[in-house]
Amino acid sequence: MINPRKTLVVVAVSLLLIHLPALSAGPKGESRSGGEDWRTPAERSEYRTTPRYDETMAYLRRLAAASPRQLKLETFGVTGEGRDLYIAVASRDGAFEPVALHKARRPIVLIQNSIHAGEMDGKDSCLALLRDMVVTHEKASLLAKAVVVVIPIYNADGHERFGPHNRINQNGPQEAGWRTQSQNLNLNRDYMKADAPETRAFLKLWNRWLPDFFVDDHVTDGADFVYDTTYNLDTGPDVFPALAAWQRDVLAPLLERSVADAGHPIAPFIALKDDTDPSRGMVTWPSSPRYSTGYVILQNRPGLLVEMHMLKDYRSRVTGNYEVLRALLEVVNRDADALLAMNRDADEATVAAGRRHDPAARFPLRLEPDGATETFRFHGHSYRRTPSEISGALRIEYGNEPVLMDVQRPTSFKVAYAVAPPAAYIVPAQWTSVIEVLASHGLRLRRTSRAWSAEVETYRCDGVKWLDHPFEGRQVLFRPQEGPPGTEASRGACEPARETLSFPRGSAVIPLDQRAAKVAIHFLEPEGPDSAVAWGFFNAVFEQKEYGEAYVLEKLARDMLEKDTHLKEEFERKIAEERDFAASPAARLEFFYRRCPWWDSRMGLYPVGRLASLEGVPLAPAR
Ligand SMILES: [Zn+2]
Prior knowledge:
Elements: H1 4-19, E1 32-33, E2 36-37, H2 41-44, H3 53-66, E3 71-78, E4 84-90, H4 98-103, E5 108-112, H5 121-134, E6 147-151, H6 156-159, H7 197-209, E7 213-219, E8 229-233, H8 241-261, E9 266-268, H9 292-298, E10 303-308, H10 314-334, H11 336-356, E11 363-369, E12 373-387, E13 394-410, E14 413-419, E15 424-427, H12 432-440, E16 446-447, E17 452-460, H13 488-491, E18 495-503, E19 508-511, H14 517-524, H15 550-563, H16 565-577, H17 579-583, H18 585-593, E20 609-611
Parallel strand pairs: 5-6, 5-7, 7-10, 8-9
Antiparallel strand pairs: 1-2, 3-4, 4-6, 8-10, 11-14, 12-13, 15-19, 15-20, 16-19, 17-18
Helix pairs in contact: 3-5, 5-10, 8-10, 15-18
Bound molecules: zinc ion.
Zinc ion binds next to loops.
């Protein structure tokens, strides 16, 4: 809600400030260079507002015009509604080409903003950061080695669904954009399936730049606490060990110290075990590849998730976000050589593992907390829990008093489900949407030169179930609670099988001796949390397409029972033991249909093959 009287006063004061810019000197608000007023639109409004798409781009164009040798704007795609997607590239010496920058061993940091376009803190902090690096040069040292690529507004269509009621939990700015893009897809669930034009554009951008470090800026939902700045770095067993160790032991402590020294209370991402009782401690979950920072793990790159606290005022949030980015860039410049070496080693290890194809190797598809916890000194807010006559449940009411609580926080993950990767996958040519997604991830595909059939490893997925409502516009698989390795719950719906499969000419072969092999494994192993099977790309395979009429099956059943006494015993035992079966005429007839040659043997059979080698596969010459 906005108090109209208060608004009038604020407008009057801010008008005064525009005429007397010296009075508005904030930490970065004074920013004058060559007599021009370089305050960002958010600074100029005293952080009451965030600029629209056009105003944001106009400010960036002003920066680029003032410093064409250090800042360049480029488009990298078009949204569903036809808006251009922009990056702003900041480079000390006008080197703006990724290939040349890689060759010069300059770390490239990609900072993504506004994927959830109600969460604008990152965008407004990046406008200030770019200005301070290339116009006022207060922060020019952040470009000593690093090149900074900023996506100011990733979800540009969502950003222009602008209004005061888009973020119910959030304390300002007055108006902002909407969480999803124009097809109502959440882009931060789309990194693997790549349904949205924005995601396809991002993947192209990723492959053109192949950044050395990735940042995704957000604002929290969830609990109230003292920290204005929270973050996550993934350091689980799916991350290349040297990169995990550097993020955990070097980067995280440096970020925390540096941001805290700048006056912003900071903590690792906070998720409460019990929303109404912070004293019960924290929970954590792994970043699966549908999320931006989970996806970059598969690309062997470190990723920082920034989550500014929703209830802090907009000034604190934008300046806090600025300090995280500033601190990160200081570390990236300092550790540039080590970072590039770790990324290169991670890529080489992936390629080597694909080339070696050790059948004993295991690739982690799913992680879970390993049970280890540590005592975390949580800077929470005072609260009380009372019964609510509105919800009928316990409610939490937060107060404003800071309260220190020692709570338990999970520290680490273990592998919950792993697979032995093949040497290559083969996807039949007719599964065009699957092949398109693989190509959009920048994977190197080969094509078969003629039709080919062979006995290959694959899966039979007879136990699939679907979620009872759409998710991200798709009918996705239901996953039971995942259990420890080897247990029923961990196994899922698909069982390994050897089957003779047919692959028409033009089928796609994806060898795993390539840099982005982990993307292929995650997408093509059905048990992956974000696999093509899980997202419903193969749903038609699970549909029964021919049916036996009851009176036809009756006759069939009688013939079968007459010829096979074991079958008769099995049928009778099932009727005696399974009440649902006994009560279902359709199930009783299907019992026989499934056991006769007319049953569709391909139903539930995964059409993708796992190849132990490329020997004998008729491959068209690589282009
Ligand atoms: Zn978000």
